[in-house]
Design goal:
Elements lengths: L9 E3 L7 H10 L2 E3 L14 H29 L1
Parallel strand pairs: 1-2
Amino acid sequence: MQDGELKPLSLAADKAYDTNAILQHLKSLGIHAVIPSKENRLEQRTPDKHLYVSRNLIERFFCCIKQFRRVATLYDKL
């Protein structure tokens, strides 16, 4: 990271990102991983529920932005 950049404290993701490589990389950067374990993982982790719920709000926000972009693009084509 460059000087002046903010370092994230945690990263929230879904089960698809539950890999050893990603978890080790985040740990080496000092970032707390909020990723639920896949069903087939031998050692199950329990993510912070409060942080994981906020992931849903962020995803819905980006979905709304994409919807508005589609509407703007549609009117632009007309």
